[in-house]
Amino acid sequence: MAVNTTNNTARKLNSCNFREHKKQLFQVDMKQVTCLAWVPRGIPALKPLKAELNSNQLSDWEDTKSDDALTNVSSEEERFNDNDDTYIADSARSHPIESNSDDEDEDFLLKADDNLVLFGCCVDNVENILEVHVYNESEDSFYPHHHYMLEEAPLCIEHVIFNKDTRDKGNFCAVGTMDSAIELWNLDVVEAIEPVAIFGVRNQSSETEKKKAKKISHEDGVLSLTWNRILSHILASGSADLQIILWDIENQVGSAVLSGHSDKVQSIKWHPTESSRLLSGDTSGVVKVWDARESVCEKEWNEFNAEIERVAWNPWKSENFFKKIEIQVAASDGRLYNMDIRSGIVDVTEAHNGAVLGLSVNNKAENYVMTSSARGSLKLWKIDDSGHFKFSNKYKLKMNDLLCCEFCPDEESVAACGGENGYKIISWNIGSAA
């Protein structure tokens, strides 16, 4: 229930050399990792805060977690703002206080060169957890720091560098689950038992709550999230209800709905430099590019003949109007596509024997792409000048269903992946792969 920070001697793993190309590290076998995200250096608070919870608040929380929680809807209704779609967390429940210095150890405090790695986990099909780990490249260290208990299994997570209260940078994580609502957690506050906000209306909300909320809300599970790095108060979500919703984080409301997909919206991504351009893919095999300002579809492709698992923009070929604007598409039949937004498919490769479940484009090493598969393989690709994929390297991990993979935002060779049997931090030898 409560979150515990790590103990230096008990939790911190032995130092390892991440530069060794074929070494896979830090596997955890007792959990399924469904999604992950990195937190860039310089974003987390160096001295995290702890939430203060009294016995009454803990008792209330346990009541809401019980099987008959729906009978206690009156207290929940009070926490819905009549003027928006969003649940507002009771500030008394998550009031941060500075931790007791007598209890602090070295690993509770963060360093300026630390990255955080966020893992959405299901443990033994019983517990659903958002885990926060610390990774430090210079120290070759990686260890769990704190975690949050979730009500539903996490399907997608997205790091959000925006504080709705200060309108400035923040350190938050949005979580999508099979519930129709989206949770927002403050990563700088440990031992929190509830998110700071919930966007939309939960599937199990009472009729009174649904009437109080506005119409903008998903009606099924949230499968994908993407934060707008230019308009930092905007978050987008794709759902099994076939809709994409744009959320105004500052005002805590759904601001627009993008309709047009005929099946589950499984992957969405904001353009890295154009604030209104959004990429999406669905399980019927359709990829769309949207103008979010006008809520209209600009481009559409439907020639994939497989479910779209992941979509991504290539940040290295996305800015100059006179050059190719490339996107990458990963499909359930094992194929990986490189596409020019104007002319369509440039190249397609049989990337994996099985669905391509993870896709990440390196923002430090030009034109490097990583994919993960349903059969436990992780591959590195280089896109050449003609737009074709060149195989560079491969890991074969002792995992089935590698559901997610992401490059570190600050180290070109470092990546994280997760799946059926846990997670790993790995290192690609980018230089020799070129």
UniProtKB/TrEMBL annotation:
Record region (Disordered): 60-103
Single GO biological process annotation from the record: rRNA processing
Name the record gives this protein: Periodic tryptophan protein 1-like protein
Natural source organism: Trichinella zimbabwensis
Keywords carried by this UniProt record: Phosphoprotein, Repeat, WD repeat
The keyword Nucleus is assigned to this record: no
InterPro entries named in the record: PWP1, WD40/YVTN_repeat-like_dom_sf, WD40_repeat_CS, WD40_repeat_dom_sf, WD40_rpt
GO CC, alphabetical: nucleus
Keyword Ribonucleoprotein set for record: no
